[in-house]
């Protein structure tokens, strides 16, 4: 899936001369965590985060550390004074999984989306989490089974075929290397239909051929292995 499917379009941005106090009011009213900053030609020049704004605010615990009236103090502080210059950006055609890796690697909460020099949106941690919820099937199913398989072609296909032959339907399948068991790979299968059977019955059947690690049903995790 691509950024254009999950980004926030029509993003609220700041001008380089926008007041930090005005930005703080918008942040509070709209619950926004990142503001792209554009120049007078609408080109992206920086980004301001909610943390940047909080750091610029005076502390109510320190006497004398307060905002002066309009015309001085914090009211003279602008987005250009606190923004991060030349922020990391992505395009609308970037894969969402790449965005997730970038957010983790660079420890940022969101990335402006720029196409051909034009700011077209922003994609945030919340957007990536929405993508993961949809991709993992959590919005459609409350039952998940984790199975340890050999890390070679074949076992996963066989497992999924057996699930289908049992009349069960699955909404998503994720796999990941098992660091504690070299040569193994874990499969996380979210079942959409149990075909009238209990999850315990399904697990018992799978255990005859596979190593079932645990299952999650209606928010309750049960360790099997």
Question: Which helices and strands occur, and which strands form pairs?
Answer:
Elements: E1 8-9, E2 14-15, H1 20-30, E3 34-38, E4 44-49, H2 50-56, H3 79-82, E5 84-85, H4 96-106, E6 110-115, E7 118-124, H5 125-136, E8 143-150, H6 155-165, E9 169-177, E10 184-193, H7 199-206, E11 211-217, E12 220-223
Parallel strand pairs: 2-3
Antiparallel strand pairs: 1-7, 3-4, 4-5, 6-7, 8-10, 8-11, 9-10, 11-12
Helix pairs in contact: 1-2
Molecular structure report:
The protein folds into 2 domains: 3-133, CBS-domain, CATH 3.10.580; 137-223, ACT domain (Alpha-Beta Plaits). It is 28% helix and 30% strand. It is built from 7 helices and 12 strands. It has helices spanning 20-30, 50-56, 79-82, 96-106, 125-136, 155-165, 199-206, and strands at residues 8-9, 14-15, 34-38, 44-49, 84-85, 110-115, 118-124, 143-150, 169-177, 184-193, 211-217, 220-223. The protein is elongated.
